């Protein structure tokens, strides 16, 4: 029995659209993010997400991806395998201002002895932000931990800087939001999937 070519075409289109719909998106602060991502060959899922607010100004959306759900800071920091956080700007900001804010968050949540172990990576991290003259609303910075490679940063899909090797450094960056003195106390429970 022969199938009508139009029916085959419609069926094929419906199948293709079904596959396209398989990749879901979440909305955080008006920006869309994938609900799963592939990092280091492994699929990661959203652990939590929220918006960084300073006074009443929405600064950026933040999404944390892990291989498995974790609801404590220790669980996130000890999570084996790759990890990612995606930061979507909700207003214009200079790379310098963003870099200074990151450095202040790292300093507030680590002690001097801890920072001395990855001082070169801190300098490299700061340099990466200097190379972003002006961040625009909607720009997305991804920061991945890839075992055997290190911390890898991208701005809108383009690499920024070189990989930074130490897991302790990546964890220090995560402590900006998940440490004892998070930059935004309402964001911490959201990243841990508690709200």
UniProtKB/TrEMBL annotation:
Record keywords, A-Z: Isomerase, Signal
Gene3D superfamilies attached to this UniProt entry: 3.50.70.10
Domain (Chalcone isomerase) ranges: 26-193
GO molecular function, one term: isomerase activity
Annotated signal sequence range: 1-25
Keyword RNA-binding set for record: no
UniProt name for this protein: Chalcone isomerase family protein
């Amino acid at each position: 029995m022969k199938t009508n070519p139009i029916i085959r075409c419609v069926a094929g289109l419906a199948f293709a659209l079904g596959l396209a719909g398989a990749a879901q998106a979440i909305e955080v602060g008006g920006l869309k993010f994938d609900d799963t991502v592939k990092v280091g060959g492994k699929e990661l899922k959203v652990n939590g997400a929220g918006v960084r607010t300073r006074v009443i100004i929405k600064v950026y959306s933040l999404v944390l991806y892990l291989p498995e759900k974790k609801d404590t800071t220790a669980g996130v920091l000890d999570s084996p395998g790759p990890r990612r956080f995606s930061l979507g700007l909700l207003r214009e900001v200079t790379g310098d201002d963003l870099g200074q804010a990151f450095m202040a968050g790292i300093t507030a949540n680590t002690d001097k002895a801890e920072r001395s172990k990855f001082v070169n990576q801190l300098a490299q991290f700061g340099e990466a932000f200097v190379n972003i003259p002006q961040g625009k609303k909607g720009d997305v910075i991804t920061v991945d931990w890839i075992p055997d490679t290190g911390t890898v940063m991208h701005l809108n899909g383009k690499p920024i800087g070189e990989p930074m090797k130490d897991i302790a450094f990546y964890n220090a960056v995560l402590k900006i939001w998940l440490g004892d003195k998070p930059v935004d106390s309402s964001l911490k429970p959201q990243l841990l999937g508690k709200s």
